[in-house]
Write a structure and sequence with these properties.
The protein is mainly β. It has strands at about 5, 10, 15-25, 30-40, 45-50, 55-60, 65-70, 75-80, 90-100, 115, 120-124. About 0% of the residues lie in helices and about 50% in strands.
Length: about 120
């Protein structure tokens, strides 16, 4: 399984970005997908996740109401729409995939495959 995250960049506070994560695996539609981020000097933290059926989404409290996770199984891609960005959202964002039909959640241990990360920088 290979995951390729893209869409990061530099944006002003209050702006928006949409991250994409393309997966090269035939079983994408049966895998839960998550987004995590890591700011300089901090531990990697959970951002959002979507179940393999797409019916369940969960968010970190810090992004709830501003970020939206979605998936397009026909394109083997998961998205993270980020609105009302804040300087504290600055981090490297990683996408991750579970094994087929596994449950999703906030814990990194639930995810077996990780992308390389894309940098998001929010200026004040």
């Amino acid at each position: 399984v290979q995951l390729q995250a893209s869409g990061g960049g530099l944006v002003q506070a209050g702006g928006s970005l949409r991250l994409s994560c393309a997966a090269s695996v035939r079983t994408f539609s049966s895998r839960g997908m998550g987004w995590f981020r890591q700011a300089p000097g901090k531990e990697r933290e959970f951002v959002a996740t979507i179940s393999w059926k797409g019916g369940s989404t969960y968010y970190a409290d810090s992004v709830k109401g501003r970020f939206t996770v979605s998936r397009d199984n026909a394109k083997n891609t998961v998205y993270l729409q980020m609105n009302s960005l804040k300087p504290e959202d600055t981090a490297v964002y990683y996408c991750a995939a579970t094994t087929p039909t596994a449950l999703v959640g906030r814990e990194m241990a639930l995810y077996d495959y990780w992308g390389q990360g894309t940098q998001v920088t929010v200026s004040s």
